[in-house]
Amino acid sequence: MCFLEFMALVTMKELLDRAEEQGVAVGAFSVGNMEMVMGAVKAAEELETPIILQIAEVRLPHSPLELMGPMMLAAAENAAVDIAVHLDHGLHPETVAKALDIGFTSVMFDGSQLPLEKNIEIVKNIVHLASDYDATVEAELGVVGGNEGEGKAHEVLCTNPADAVRFCDETGIDALAVAIGNAHGNYPVLPSLRFDVLEEIHKAVRVPLVLHGGTGITAEMFRRCISLGVRKINIATASFDSLAQYAKAYCDNKPEKPNYFELSACEVEGVYQNVKKHIEIFNMK
Questions:
Q1: d(CA 75, CA 83)
Q2: Residue 21 CB: number of other CB atoms within 10 A?
Q3: Would you call 272 helix, strand, or coil by DSSP?
Q4: Bridge-partner residues for 235, per DSSP?
């Protein structure tokens, strides 16, 4: 089931509102190069389903924002489906401001490692800044485990539902990323998600919920999260891994000198297959 209505560069809030109406989740797919952008858009267009293209601040040393941002925006503007372009896990207000200036239609500031009051203070300022651009704001409360990119690993600290109410009310955010036992990167074992915590948060707050650390979570877990208010699901590691696997398979099976353009096509295919798989899961009720 798709929720395609128009075709354009859109805000994340528009996609979250549509996802809420349909009882589905919109996939937010991290990208790091042109092939990843192309593969994600190809899958979205084939399934006629809007997506979010995103890049996390920790990726920027390898994929500079001033290069990736315009490419992501151009892909969204020329796609046959609606696409939002999002800064994921912004760690510094200056990076968030730069993404907004480039034209990103949504941003996330991750203050989950800060004291609650400081997180609220900074996110309120981000919401105020983003309003000048009509951009959507996501923030995180609790600590999602693992690590984003090659950063420091964190232990999971589940989101406190009472804190979530205060956080949403005082900041005015559009979407809340929650910690319910999920983690970034590859899970060494199948995670045990706290659906009871998720349900309590869903009943208590009025904003769409976001699930980070989607790589390795089963289809059944995804669908249960969606039934409990998750309207955006982040996929990063699975796409990076799929690209690398397709590229390796091509090089391993190419006894003569590998061809760059064939390699590029394999990278696109690797991301396309992973994004397509997840879109099909997220759009099923």
A1: 9
A2: 9
A3: helix
A4: 29
- Confidence class for position 215, pLDDT limits 50, 70, 90: confident
Per the document, the length of the chain is 285
Per the structure block, which two tokens stand in for 47? Answer: 């399934």
Known catalytic membership, residue 88: yes
Give SS3 for 216: coil
Name the least confident of 39-48, 125-134, 211-220, 228-237. 211-220
- Over residues 269-279, the pLDDT tens digits come to 999 999 999 99
Q: Note the Cα 120 to chain centre separation in Å.
A: 21
Specify whether the CB–CB gap between 133 and 154 falls below 8 A: no
Query: Among the options 17, 82, 88, 110, which is catalytic?
Result: 88
What is residue 187's predicted lDDT score, i.e. its pLDDT?
Answer: 52
Does the structure show a pLDDT above 90 at 214?
no
DSSP state, 154? Answer: B
What Å distances lie between residue 256 and 263, 264, 265, CA to CA?
13, 17, 17
Those residues whose C-beta lies under 8 Å from the C-beta of residue 134, and which sit 6 or more positions away, are: 11
Q: Which domains does the chain have, with CATH numbers?
A: 12-282 (3.20.20.70)
Nearest to 278 by CA among 214, 212, 226: 214
On the CB side of 213, CA atoms within 13 Å amount to 29
CB environment 172-204: b (16+ within 10 A), e (fewer): ebbbbbbbbbbbbbebeeebebbbebbbbbbee
Other residues' Cβ atoms within 10 Å of the Cβ of residue 2? 14
Alpha-carbon gap, residue 269 to 276, rounded angstroms: 10
Collapsing DSSP states into helix, strand and coil, what is residue 49? Answer: coil
220-235 burial, b for 16+ CB within 10 Å, e for fewer? ebbbbbbebbbbbbbb
Q: Do 109 and 33 form a contact (C-beta atoms < 8 A)?
A: no
Q: Which amino acid is at 186?
A: N
